[in-house]
Specification:
By secondary structure, this protein is α/β, with parallel strands linked by helices. The chain is built from 6 helices and 5 strands.
């Protein structure tokens, strides 16, 4: 019996040694510390282009945004959680616009698994004040397959790394502003 138990422990350790690196390598595409190296779709307007500080109206990278930190809501117009979260995202955007501490932070949504009609309907139905970019060719959608929407990420424009990831809707825009400030402070300290 004792040999059998020792054998089970040995097999358990071998299995852990084999599969633990595999599981670690399967970190999600929007987990903290991962690179967000996607080519993002063109701004939806010249107003969005100016807000993001982009030189052109074409596709861009996070590093092209004239800011230290970018907050991106990964969403879909058909997602009921994204719809429920829209008023809070409007409030978050307005708070960011009025807070001097947010001067080096930009915010936009990236609509996945969507089409232009869906995004337009969403914008109208929820009177969105924040920019919503559409992954028209679904290239980002395919690489983020299985991602739950909404998920909001905070990305460093200097490194392209995801500094924080928040799955689900933002319940407290004021609380999320505090989180952004905390992440900015850690980034400034080189953390």
């Amino acid at each position: 019996m004792r040999k059998y138990l020792s054998f089970q422990v040995f097999i358990g350790l071998v299995m852990a040694a084999v599969f633990l690196p595999v599981v670690s390598a399967l970190a999600g595409p929007v987990d903290e510390g991962t690179q967000f190296n996607y080519t993002l779709p063109s701004p939806d307007s010249s107003k969005t282009q100016a807000y993001l500080g982009l030189k052109t109206m074409g596709p861009f990278k996070v590093s092209d945004v004239k800011a230290k930190v970018v907050v991106i809501e990964l969403m879909s117009s058909t997602c009921p959680h994204c719809q429920a979260s829209a008023p809070n995202m409007n409030r978050l955007y307005k708070l960011m616009q009025s807070d001097p501490a947010m001067a080096h932070v930009r915010f936009f949504a990236l609509s996945l698994r969507d089409n232009q009609a869906g995004v337009d309907t969403f914008k109208k139905a929820f009177s969105t004040t924040y920019p919503i970019l559409l992954d028209k060719d679904h290239s980002i959608t395919h690489t983020l397959k299985g991602l739950e929407t909404p998920t909001t990420i905070i990305v460093s424009t200097a490194t392209g790394k995801i500094l924080s990831s928040h799955p689900g809707g933002i319940e407290s825009p004021d609380g999320f502003i505090k989180q952004i400030n905390f992440v900015k402070a850690l980034t400034a300290m080189g953390q």
